[in-house]
Amino acid sequence: MTKNSFAFEQSLAELEALVRKMESGEMSLEASLAAFEQGIRLTRDCQKALSDAEQKVQKLVAQNGALTTEPFDQEDDGDSTNGSPGRGH
Fold it and tell me: Is residue 31 over pLDDT 50?
């Protein structure tokens, strides 16, 4: 999944469906483990999307009140325009 094609709502719905299936108790151990692995991947993808959105909002606020956007670059740890300390990248 690329950054531009990630569908947060769809991934969240898939994750919720996986949880319901696992909670039903009707899956085999092997199927439960596979579902758990898929759920971890979906969770990480959703967490990354939320983190990226949060950082974009922080950049918007940090622009002296001017509502301008710039592409978020995860590898750009040396951004001197952001006055807040790093968040443990």
Answer: yes
